[in-house]
UniProtKB/TrEMBL annotation:
Protein name, UniProt field: Glycosyl transferase
Entries under InterPro entries matching the protein: Glyco_trans_2-like (IPR001173), Nucleotide-diphossugar_trans (IPR029044)
Organism: Xanthomarina gelatinilytica
Annotated GO MF terms: hexosyltransferase activity
TM helices/strands, residue ranges: none
Length: 271
């Protein structure tokens, strides 16, 4: 029987965290079949070995273990290796350093999408774990977001943690996607099209903040550059709606100003 949902997980040097991630997948109780696709991008620690051990015990786990790092070759694991293997009608995302804590997370999200065809994705609130201080707190990223939102809202800012979303497997990513500095926010924008987005109040997952994270480990100018280099290709390839593009252009101008101010302040300090 084909899975109704594909869990898609990408990892790199997540030896300290991957067991907790995989345990969160296996914790799920669903009335439908699932598959668990786990891609390791040639980790230099024991991440791949841990994935092998879990796969030997549970046939639902589909390991993709690279011997050469693909990200460094501008091949995003999601676009090139994981999504092409996903058989599910729905896709749940979680990176190898985050984890889920509600055993009915997937059931709740799939039940909602099955009952509401006008929604393209749904996500939930989460907790946030600060690795350095070992503090677990409520994540405030999306606390002010409405229960229902659209692509225009999402174009203003990314309020969805990757490990909280379940989306319809209704998209195809083009080659230029590989050259984006990040993949989650542009993926959510490309996928949602003219459908709606649902937010659940429950905190069903944990987002981990540590120095190795793409966004959480970035400083001010890195964040500015990543944002600009993500927005520019989205506008160039015109893959979003006109209202969403209008919002993106405004956001692009805002970050160009931030970039100018950053370098202007640095120049003044040198004088």
């Amino acid at each position: 029987m084909n899975p109704l949902l594909s869990i898609c997980c990408t990892t790199f040097n997540h030896e300290k965290y991957i067991k907790q991630t995989l345990d969160g997948f296996l914790l799920q109780q669903t009335s439908f079949p699932i598959e668990i696709i786990v891609h390791d991008d040639a980790s230099t620690d024991n991440t791949a070995e841990i994935i092998r051990e879990y796969a030997e015990k549970d046939s639902r786990i589909v390991p993709i273990l690279q011997t050469e790092n693909q990200f460094s070759k501008f091949k995003k694991p999601w676009a090139n290796y994981v999504f092409p293997r996903a058989q599910g009608k729905y896709i749940a995302l979680c990176e190898g350093d985050d984890y889920w804590i509600d055993p009915f997370k997937l059931q709740k999200q799939v039940d909602f999408l099955e009952a509401h065809p006008d929604y393209g994705s749904c996500f939930h609130n989460s907790k946030i774990f600060y690795q350095d201080t070992q503090q677990l707190e409520h994540d405030i990223l999306n606390k002010d977001e409405p229960e229902t939102s659209t692509i225009v809202d999402l174009a203003r800012t990314n309020y969805i943690r990757t490990n909280t979303i379940v989306l319809r497997n209704n998209f195809k990513l083009q080659d230029w996607f590989n050259f984006l500095p990040v993949g989650d926010w542009p993926l959510f924008l490309i996928q949602i099209k003219d459908l709606k987005i649902k937010r659940f109040e429950e905190e069903m997952g944990v987002y981990r903040v540590h120095s190795q994270g793409a966004w959480s480990g970035a400083d001010e100018i890195q964040t500015i550059k990543m944002t600009l280099n993500t927005i520019k290709p989205l506008l160039k390839h015109n893959v979003l709606s006109k209202p969403a593009n209008k919002v993106l252009r405004k956001r692009y101008r805002k970050y160009k100003k931030k970039q100018f101010k950053y370098y202007w302040k640095k120049w003044l300090k040198r004088k």
